[in-house]
Design a protein that fits this description.
- InterPro entries: Transmembrane_26 (IPR019169).
- This protein is mainly α.
- The protein folds into 2 domains: 1-91 and 125-217, no CATH class; 220-303.
- Helix content is 69%, strand content 0%.
- It has helices at 2-30, 43-55, 66-88, 102-109, 116-128, 132-153, 162-188, 195-209, 231-237, 239-251, 253-265, 272-308.
- Helix 1 (2-30) packs antiparallel against helix 2 (43-55).
């Protein structure tokens, strides 16, 4: 019980710390203290932590994670502001240090003095010297890694098995990799500041992030609970597959394909990786549509024998 309390608290504290770092970065970039008010978005997460610890002993819910949703609400506005600011000021951010080699990292963190006073005095200068795109990419990466680790550490909700949690975490890893690749690669295709394209990419990214609070891709009703006959029973047995198809078509690969085709056709941007990932999204969409057709066909074949079976007659002779 104590371990569950500790994991629940540490997870939410990690969420809050990363959100505060994002707010601090926004304040530093915009050079305006008013952006500190973004930190007030962390208050609902604190309230949720208190309620969950008191009423549910730290346990998460079965199909939904309020802590992850509130974490996304606290961090997404900061990333939006940083991305938009970076797109508007690309040409003015030439003098910076990139984190693309061990040598550059060593130069950034190297100090002539090792006293604590000197370190705290120059910490702002050290972090400010890192390029804006590396800062934003780091926030994206930390956000996705923390979502996976946070879900792992959060106490299991009622009815969730460890097997289901491991499957869910594997799905989270694949989803996080696809989302990070989409945002980093597609935003690099914005050659000049185009508000419409940037808003579209960030909007799709935000929409895709809403997958993480939901657990319907794995956590479903048990097969033994679906004993009813007819199409309702088939729908229950296939609920995991149906949710996976919905996620791919309407939340992830479908929107990704639309955006990449827009970049290719409307914005006339062409390169190998963009074409490759567009083909990859197209294949995933087609395969999920094929999977949906197979499920529908299986549903018909499973219900036909029941509907066509005649009522047995009494054939005994009088």
């Amino acid at each position: 019980m104590i371990l569950k309390f500790i994991c629940a608290i540490l997870t939410r504290l990690s969420f809050i710390i990363l959100s505060i770092i994002g707010v601090w970065r926004v304040k530093h970039v915009k050079d305006d203290n008013v952006f500190w008010f973004l930190s007030l978005l962390c208050l609902p997460l604190v309230v949720e932590m208190i309620i969950t610890l008191k009423r549910r002993k730290g346990k998460d819910y079965k199909w939904f994670s309020p802590a992850i949703l509130l974490f996304l609400i606290t961090i997404i506005p900061s990333i939006w502001i940083l991305e938009l600011h970076h797109q508007q000021n690309k040409m003015q951010e030439l003098q910076c240090k990139k984190l693309d080699s061990w040598e550059n990292i060593a130069k950034i963190i190297s100090l002539n003095e090792t006293t604590a006073r000197h370190i705290f005095k120059n910490v702002n200068e050290l972090v400010s010297s890192v390029c804006a795109d590396d800062w934003i990419l780091g926030l994206h990466q930390c956000l996705l890694v923390l979502l996976i680790l946070g879900k792992w550490l959060l106490p299991l909700g009622g009815g969730v098995t460890r097997d289901e949690l491991s499957q869910l975490l594997l799905i989270f890893v694949g989803t996080a990799a696809d989302i990070l690749e989409f945002t980093s690669e597609t935003l690099l295709d914005v050659k000049e500041y185009s508000p419409q394209l940037v808003y579209i990419i960030l909007g799709i990214w935000t929409w895709c992030m809403l997958q993480f609070p939901l657990h319907l891709a794995v956590v479903t009703s048990r097969p033994e609970e679906s004993l009813e006959a007819g199409s309702d029973s088939m729908l229950r047995r296939r609920s995991t597959a149906m949710w996976s198809i919905v996620e791919s078509l309407f939340i992830q690969d479908g929107p990704f394909l639309v955006v990449r085709l827009t970049v290719l056709i409307h914005y006339n941007i062409f390169h190998q990786m963009l074409v490759f990932f567009a083909i990859k999204n197209f294949l995933v969409v087609i395969l999920h549509l094929y999977w949906l057709c197979v499920i529908c066909q299986d549903s018909r074949t499973s219900t036909t024998p029941r509907n066509s079976t005649s009522i047995p007659c009494n054939t005994d002779e009088a």
